[in-house]
Structures are given as structure tokens and as C-alpha cells.
Amino acid sequence: MKKPIIPKEFSHYYNDWHFAPAVKIDKFVFFSGATGTRPDRSISSDPEAQFREAFETVLLYLTEATLSFDDVVEMTTYHVSLRKYFDTFTKVKDEYVKDPYPAWSAIGVSELITEGALVEIRVIAYRS
Description:
This protein is an alpha+beta fold. It is built from three helices and six strands.
């Protein structure tokens, strides 16, 4: 049976856009993509700050599911201007994602749903 996980700060996603930030099925938790969009729907124009806020949103989702980045088994990131900001993104990612690393795919895209968003991070976690 699937169970949605909805942090209070982002309940508007569930109510307005009709999707769950995360869904638990057995020992797996599947997370929707997270951008650096703040709960008030604003977004930083600074790439490093935006990447950090995206990871903080993923961390909030994981915490709501009583998980951490240590439980992430797969990560997919979608990037506007992938090569331009890749080194900055990797620097921030390494603050959150530690060895043993999850599987990871980084994909370049032309745009994301939030205007000005440079990255969307999607993870799958396993509760051991």
C-alpha cells in the first residue's frame, strides 16, 4: 500500500498541483523532484545558494520520512546549463551525499517548471 509523505512546509504541492513530495511503498520511498524553490515559492538567483536550497528541500523530505541521505540508493538530477554549473553543483552535492554513494544520473534540460530554477533533484531511498 502506498502512503504519501507531505512535509507541512510543502503541503501546497499536494493541494495545488496534486502530487506528493514522496510516496512510501514497503521499504522504498520515492521522492518527487525538488528544486531550490523556497516554501514561499521564491528562488535565489545565486546558483550555489539555489543548489544548497534544493538539497535542503530533499533533506526535509527525507527527514519527514525518517530517512537521511545515507538511505538514498538512486539520485537523478536535471540541470539547466549542466556544464556551466556542474562544478558548483558537485561541490554542494558533496556536502550532503557521502560515501558509499548512490547511483546517480545527471541530465541536461532546457527548462524546469519554476522559472529561474537551475536544478531539480529526485531520489529513491531504501529503508533497511
